[in-house]
Write a structure and sequence with these properties.
InterPro entries: EIF3C, EIF3C_N_dom, EIF3CL_C, PCI_dom, WH-like_DNA-bd_sf, WH_DNA-bd_sf. The chain contains 42 helices and seven strands. With 882 residues, it is mainly α. A hairpin with a 4-residue loop joins strand 6 and strand 7. The protein is globular.
């Protein structure tokens, strides 16, 4: 074939290959003498000669050589001045490379290209699970970064991207391979890579945080992306089937069904198409995205009320079914489901002749359209099978789940939290619908959902949330406008829930009501409600979420007692929670790290799903500070009042006593760094009588600023520290005084004379202080009697005899197997009776054994008979001490 007729798809080989092609065609070349060939002008060649034709020509040329055809004569070199531009003409690669302009790259550009290459290698290694190769490439990248930072250049984003991507890939691999174990080599390489990535992540922690924040920005992504590709060739014409596979991309698209026929959705085929969608729902190979699109098109076509209700019910269900992520529903899908739910409820409110019920007694054909006139019940209402309350529950649960899986310290959490107002509006709209249709059980459930959104919020936030009910036609009976204030609104909602037959709703409503009272500093009202409801007796058999709500209510009640200045009540309430050392787990604000047991993936997933969203958390550091300060104000005077080691072992707060003993064992105490350090140093200062130092240390704790009415709380703490400092001073120094001026005490502790007199009088009345008050001279007269040597020996002997008897009785009980009987009697009537028989009715009753009860009862009883030989001496010594 003449070379002048070549097309654009022919070869771009060299001129020698072109001449061989002429010789190696299907016909044999005529024999002729060898003569030099003239060079063909390359200006006649086209731009896109294929390499395939060149290779086939070479193979044909070899065949022709086997048939003894004359070999082609080597032609002279082509003049380089006749060559065309690169990419348009032939010629060897070496010639082209010599003529092409050389690109000079800087060292920085070379490093960037090398980093890109290494990054691609890391991604490929991670995709195929080759952790050895990934570790090697990561080390190469680290050396490049180290070299770049050595020349005073910033850390490249490729390095940060590699760290973040490897962390994500390794965490995903851990979850994926929890069931399928890796081999030893891969596990070793993976662990080594984890250590390297962890070290690099720690070195560039701030940069990685900044990278994660800027990751979504277009400029930052553009900086990481490779140079833009050359412009694409025009796409080939799409088939009609391809156009139908992506509906909505053009005005003339057509949905294609089975057999390649176009599907047209009309008013008459809505029910039929809806039945087909419902039939395919849940099957293995069903495209859920396409189902949602089909239902959206059916909703756009449907005009009648019955059809729209049926399509909306199916569409909302399909929205909830489509969840590509295992954690929570995408925000755009959630927003669409919320809008469609509002549309459904408003349609039902507008058309009272149609009702959506969970149970429909009459069986009806789904393909036949129903109307109130022909298919209504006795009331003329068309009953459609469905559940509005289940949609509300699912919408609320998905909102909570999305908050659980969002970083609470980022802007995404705030943006997502703004949707609570939209959700609250949907809940109020559903409440209005159930109120007008007199459906009590669904109404109670939706009111409970509403209560759970407002019971823990301050009044300002509740008022802002209630602003969604501005439309007079969509306001339910229970509203802020009717109640007057948020606290009255919560009270009205709880009163309504108390009348329901569901015990779970009644229990949760009671706990929410108590929580709200505690939030408004109404301690006595909240305490009386908790005690009268007897929830503490039955909460252990409730579900886990109710137990979490109970724990949250208890902690809020303790904080309320502290704000009201009720220190003893606060310590007693919080003791139940903080004695377990699992505060975060009990409040569902974190997972408890168990030392000897591990949770299965299913258990861990269930616990994570129970976690409270971050904006509902109670500050555990604040609660711990409240508990420790309350324990300090109770324990320090108590320690000063006890004079025996055995009495000092009986603690009120074991956790506080443990922290205090640890602080006392410290050789050197530096300046306080955290809340515990402040409280422990304040406790030691209070023991030494330095109440000013203790007050300054407690008030300098920064956590008090997070508490409402922080100024009044600090003033209350200063006053209580003054009073407890006075009590501690009297307990510690009473043996060293015979009389003590009340005015002096008033000046030392900066208290009024009336307050000092009241405190001292109360201590004398409670028999905490052996003294009397001389109001005429304004002094406290201490009654001190020193025991003789014989009395001291008698006291020591009585204590040892009591210990010996108790030990012998324990041994006897273990031998006879009567330990259970003694345990049942405990400190009850058994020991009291035996003690009375031996000692004749001592004052201190209820000891564990009879002899110990006799000894202590006879000692406390003024002049009572004593047991077996020790009567006079021991009784006298005990009476002196008493």
């Amino acid at each position: 074939m003449s070379r002048f007729f070549r097309t654009q798809n022919d070869s771009s080989s060299s001129s020698e290959s072109s001449d061989e092609e002429l010789l190696s065609s299907g016909e044999e070349a005529p024999a002729q003498p060898a003569q030099p060939k003239q060079p063909m002008s390359r200006f006649l060649k086209t731009a896109g000669d294929s390499d395939a034709s060149s290779s086939s020509s070479s193979s044909d040329s070899d065949d022709s050589d086997d048939d003894d055809q004359p070999a082609p004569v080597a032609k002279p070199a082509v003049n380089r001045f006749l060559r065309k531009n690169a990419g348009l003409g032939g010629g060897s690669d070496s010639d082209d490379s010599d003529d092409a302009p050389k690109i000079v790259k800087s060292a920085k550009d070379k490093r960037i290209e090398e980093m890109q290459t290494i990054g691609k290698a890391i991604d490929n290694a991670v995709k195929i699970g080759d952790w050895n190769a990934a570790s090697t490439e990561f080390e190469k990248l680290g050396r490049l970064v180290q070299r770049q930072t050595g020349v005073s250049e910033p850390v490249p984003p490729y390095w940060l991207r590699a760290i973040v991507s490897l962390e994500t890939a390794m965490s995903a691999t851990k979850e994926k391979d929890s069931k399928k174990k890796l081999n030893a080599a891969a596990t070793k390489a993976l662990n080594g890579l984890k250590q390297k990535v962890k070290k690099a992540s720690k070195e560039h922690e701030e940069l990685i945080k900044e990278y994660n924040k800027k990751k979504a920005e277009e400029k930052y992504i553009a900086a990481l992306a490779p140079p833009p590709p050359p412009p694409k060739e025009p796409a080939p014409a799409r088939s009609r089937v391809a156009e139908a596979a992506a509906p909505g991309e053009g005005p003339d698209f057509t949905t294609v069904g089975k057999g390649g026929k176009g599907v047209q959705h009309t008013q008459d085929t809505v029910l039929k198409d809806l039945a087909q969608v419902n039939e395919n729902r849940g099957k293995k190979n069903t495209d859920r995205v396409e189902q949602v699109r089909t239902l959206e098109r059916l909703l756009a076509v449907a005009e009648k009320t019955y059809l729209r209700i049926r399509v909306l019910l199916a569409l909302i269900s399909a929205r909830f079914d489509y969840n590509p992520a295992a954690t929570h529903m995408p925000i755009d899908a959630w927003m669409s489901a919320q809008e469609e739910l509002d549309q459904l409820v408003r349609l039902l409110l507008k058309e009272p002749a149609y009702s959506v019920d969970e149970q429909v007694d009459v069986e009806y054909d789904d393909i036949i359209e129903r109307n109130p006139k022909d298919h209504g019940d006795a009331d003329g209402i068309v009953r459609i099978r469905g559940s509005v309350i289940s949609f509300v529950d699912r919408l609320d649960e998905e909102f909570t789940r999305s908050l659980q899986n969002t970083d609470p310290h980022g802007t995404e959490y705030i943006e997502r939290l703004r949707h609570e107002k939209i959700l609250y509006k949907s809940i109020c709209l559903a409440e209005l619908y159930f109120e007008r249709t007199s459906k009590e059980d669904p109404r109670a459930r939706v009111i409970m959902r509403r209560l759970e959104h407002i019971y823990y919020k301050p009044d300002v936030l509740v008022e802002a949330l209630e602003q969604v009910n501005a439309d007079a036609d969509s306001i339910p009976a229970l509203s802020l406008r009717a109640s007057g204030n948020p606290q009255s609104l919560v009270h009205s909602i709880c009163i309504l829930l108390y009348k329901t037959t569901n015990p779970v709703l009644r229990t949760r409503a009671m706990l929410c009501h108590i929580y709200n009272h505690a939030l408004h500093n109404e301690f006595y009202t909240a305490r009386d409600m908790l005690l009268m409801s007897h929830l503490q007796e039955s909460v252990h058999s409730a579900d886990i979420m109710t137990q979490i709500l109970y724990n949250r209510t208890i902690v809020q009640l303790g904080l309320c007692a502290f704000r009201c200045g009720l220190i003893k009540e606060c310590q007693a309430i919080l003791q139940e929670i903080f004695a377990t050392q699992r505060v975060k787990e009990l409040l569902a604000q974190g997972l408890h790290q168990q030392r000897y047991t591990t949770l299965t993936p299913e258990q861990e997933k269930a616990e994570r799903n129970r976690q409270m969203p971050f904006h509902m958390h109670i500050n555990t550091e604040l609660a711990e500070a409240v508990f420790l300060v309350a324990s300090m104000l109770i324990e320090i005077p108590l320690l000063a009042s006890l004079d025996t080691e055995e009495a000092k072992r009986k603690t009120v707060s074991k956790s506080f006593r443990r922290l205090l003993e640890h602080a006392n064992r410290q050789v050197f105490n530096g300046p306080p760094e955290n809340t515990r350090d402040h409280i422990m140093q304040a406790s030691k200062a209070l023991q030494d009588g330095e109440w000013q130092k203790a007050r300054d240390l407690i008030q300098s704790i920064a956590i008090w600023n997070l508490m409402p009415e922080a100024k009044s709380v600090k003033e209350m703490l200063a006053k209580r520290i003054q009073e407890e400092g006075l009590r501690t001073y009297l307990f510690s120094n009473a043996p060293h005084y015979s009389t003590l001026s009340l005015e002096l005490l008033s000046r030392i502790f900066s208290l009024s004379l009336r307050t000092v007199t009241s405190i001292v009088s109360k201590m004398i009345w409670n028999e905490e202080l052996a003294a009397s008050l001389d109001q005429a001279s304004g002094v406290v007269v201490f009654h001190r009697t020193e025991t003789t040597k014989l009395q001291q020996l008698a006291l020591a002997l009585s204590e040892r005899v009591a210990q010996l008897v108790e030990q012998n009785e324990k041994t006897l009980d273990n031998k006879l197997g009567n330990s259970a009987a003694w345990a049942d009697r405990g400190d009850g009537k058994g020991g009291e009776k035996r003690g009375g028989e031996v000692a004749g009715g001592g004052e201190r009753r209820g000891t564990r054994t009879g002899t110990r009860g006799a000894l202590r009862g006879g000692a406390r009883g003024r002049g009572a008979r004593f047991a077996q030989g020790l009567g006079g001496q021991v009784a006298g010594a005990r009476a002196v001490r008493a």
